[in-house]
Amino acid sequence: MLRLYFLISLMCLVRSDTDETCPSFTKLSFHSAVVGTGLNVKLMLYTRENPTCAQAINSTVLGNLNVTKKTIFTVHGFRPTGSPPVWMEDLVEGLLSVDDMNVIVVDWNQGATTVIYNHASRKTRKVAIVLKEFIDQMLAEGASLDDIYMIGVSLGAHVAGFVGKMYNGQLGRITGLDPAGPLFNGRPPEDRLDPGDAQFVDVIHSDIDALGYREPLGNIDFYPNGGLDQPGCPKTIFGGMQYFKCDHQRSVYLYLSSLRENCTITAYPCDSYRDYRNGKCVNCGISQTESCPLLGYYADNWKGYLRERDPPMTKAFFDTAEEKPFCVYHYFVDIITWNKNIRRGSITIKLRDKAGNTTESKINHEPTTFQKYHQVSLLARFNQDLDKVAAISLVFSTGSVIGPRYKLRILRMKLRSLAHPERPQLCRYDLVLMENVETVFQPILCPELQM
Q1: Is the whole-model pTM more than 0.85?
Q2: Binding site, annotated residues for Ca(2+)
Q3: Which residue of 160, 228, 253, 363 pairs with 150 in a disulfide if CB–CB is 3.0 to 4.6 A?
Q4: Range 11-39 average pLDDT
């Protein structure tokens, strides 16, 4: 009996040791953040052979890492409470779902955990040195810089930039997810992420008025919702911690949507968010036949096209929905009016399909000017993509709250999808909109020869 107990105890010990072979991201307490932490960089490898149980690796132990495959390093940023990033597991899972690769989680929580931000920011170059030592070993084993891709979040974006500088911009790719702004805004290229730090650098700016970096830092810089307040995030301090970090983190969740959601987020190269919203930037490419850039993992599809530009840089804008998967679907609403006098106001358009599903777009970011016999093309953004539209409603408003004062006389309205230009365009003729009154109608197919 004693012998049996000993065997059971031994089996438990072995099982415990096995559990320990799956290292986890460092968890620290708020107390650690208050007293500060010294830098310690851990590297954890995930592959399709070990998608959930990481291997601890370093410059002398490469584990399952196959140097002939693409290797992605994910680098987090400032951790003021010591907790692991809530998005890290989803990012690893999503990356492995789209490609057979090495995913290395760079855990520098010991170093990033502090309530004093500049203490963490000062450690970014040291993290980069550790990563260079590891990459040097990969290269010695036969890896190629072309296959190395770094995804950096906040401070991690600048870490990635520092690594790229050490290799004279020969890393395959760097993605910066809302690169940190405080202490980096206005700094010279050698002190921050820069377009020359890799063969292709793409950046998502989601919090340019607070924690993120405002100016372009990549070959292509994406500005969701103009890079400012993100839909669905708290607008006041009563939202708690989410008020401070929701906009900043949205860049990560937008990237995640490119890996696993059933929608593709398209962005539109443009000089400004205002021009994008006014529908001035919906054709991509000099010949107007180039497809628009995609946000996230597949952004590098535009790498070849950008190389033809001088300089090889562009800004791209798009809007998002409040909730996952964040996609919006763009349509043009072309309106020709025949009012004798000029009318200024906004349009709300609602679509309904035969099943009763509805989606609405308020085009009210700035007043639209309607002139007699002039076509106005309004960019409408819907949260749902209805394949077959059975009914359309329009509301015209000048902002007046006192009854219907004005009419908008529409000679022709046309609805055309940007996401699916092959779909038939829908028209309606001779409408009179009473201000603030919803007008519902069934559209008809536009004549085929009409542009």
Answers
A1: yes
A2: 192, 194, 197
A3: 160
A4: 74
